[in-house]
Write a structure and sequence with these properties.
Radius of gyration: 24 Å
Strand content: under 5%
Order of helices and strands: HHHHHHHEEHHHHHHHHHHHHHHHHHH
Strand order of the largest sheet: 1-2
Number of strands: 2
Helix content: over 70%
Distance between the termini: 24 Å
Number of helices: 25
Shape: globular
Structural class: mainly alpha
Length: about 650
Amino acid sequence: MNTLVPAPQLTARAILLSIVLTVLLAAANAYLGLFAGLTVATAIPAAVVSMAVLRLLGRSNILENNIVATGASAGSSIAAGTIFTIPALVILGHWQRFEYWWVLAIAGLGGLLGVLFSVPLRRTLIVEQKLKFPEGIATAEVLKAGNEPQSGAVRSLGLAAATAGLFKLSLSGLKVSPEAFTLAGYAAGGRGIAFFGFNLSPALLGVGYVCGLNIGFLMLSGGLLAWWLFIPVYHAFFLGSDAALAAELANASAEDAAYAIWSRQVRYIGVGAMLVGGLWSVYSLRNSLLSGVKSGLAAARGTQGDLPHTERDLPMSAILSGIVLFVVPLYALYHAVVDSVGIAATMAVIMIVAGFVFSSVSGYMAGLVGSSNNPVSGITICTILFASLVLLGFLGPGSTVGPVAAILVGAVICNSAAVAGDNLQDLKAGQIVGATPWRQQVMLGIGAICSAAVMAPVLNLLLEAYGIGEPAHEGVRALPAPQANLMASVAKGIFGAGLPWDMIAIGAALGILVILVDQYLKSQGGRWRAPILAVAVGLYLPLELSTPIFAGGLLAELADRWHARRLGPGADLEGTRRTGLLFAAGLIAGEALMGVLIAIPIVASGDADVLAVPEGLRPGQWLGAAAVAAIGWWLYRTARSVPTRTAAR
């Protein structure tokens, strides 16, 4: 599609629709990330909505729909970069609320840097190395399918979103059932703890479906290690060594005891595993990273010449000038915290250099495994660890501003890396459908700024309605914000605030063992792998979040096997996955958006039970479990349906 005069792309209506979707999806992903520690790529649902809306407004084309999807994808990447890091400033006590201009500056500068960094990487990773970028390919397929009248994608996505939204309203708003199905009790004469939890969340089923069985199983494995091995062992043999915790748990229920031990001790095993996983991710990509940096710099020195529109990026001179100019506001941000010209200048330079390096890593990983499995949090841990060690040399142990400054560095780079990975997915989709790269890059910059502009209000809304780390009101479940808690723990630990280093060491050793297993599986050449970060996230999250993700992955595997039997050995299953993926995306989007909407009346009234029905009308957790099982069955049946295009072949 290398035409000299392409179809309209960066139109006013496409920009406006993309901004609306960007804001909505950024808010939804902020909630989902704080709730489950995961965000999902939003280009596909945005593409589906665009095809429906623009068709109603008049004639549209595939390139215009691609622009909408491109800008909207910034909503998920900015949300991820923000909620993985910036809530750590509240957790550290530096902020009581999210300061609007600070959040806008941190997320906005990081997002724009990610767009700029990804421009010289496009030719390296997409054109030269021809990485897969699976979500970019999937988005392109959805866009192409949208030109077919028989496509039922919008209906499937809308039904799933409405179902998940109503379910979320029933549980979190009306409170007809607890949000998690749990069973717990003491074992071995009261010395051990037996616990099982399953979050009643259609969104988590959808997340598991998108990630697949391999990732779901690894997360569940980490969760079972934490909750079925480490917590019972600690309660039986080591609780006596912590007199304060033992006194607190003297008359506690088994469930409360399990959560207390996980919160105070066992989750730091996940911290150790994630630290090792983040370092391993960078080390294992060292050769590709060096090659990518060299190629990117070489591309930056070149000129575009008389290229077809499908190869025209933003001018490299503007990219390099923009990166240099961004040093000034970044310096101002750091100086406002550390109040030192030398330290602020050092941190700004470190941020620019590390930002390009880690954006390269993020882009490369997105090309291999997709944005949903991209270890951005591991990359950010490495950044915060490095920045903390540098600041430790300047400020010394016990500094109160050191952890805050390290989080600021990590926040900018996390936003940059997240945007770079998603940007390259969008540029891959654009390459397939024949879009103009510079137009996509402009739309991504607009999407990044719009997403950053709504982050502070959304985060304050969620903070007041649910709480982050700690419940905002009695009777509500706080959003755990696992990555932000992890970032705060690492930054504080470096400056001597005290961490359970023995637990972190156990996690690090476990991480090394998982890496060895993964390398063995890699040498066997099979489809199953054991990426350490998936296990580490399972160790760090409550078990109730890992179990539905595993269930969703199991449903995806069963649907794939059904299609494999139908089509025969060696069949390509990519085309059969579209219906299930769209339904799963609807479950995720519907629940996440409803989570934000429910927060509005709670904050306005100051009453966590403002929407709740009387206790006598609450059937309990078994009804909620049955309803989630029914939604899971619906997801499986939808995934088994034969796509129209596949059936026509």
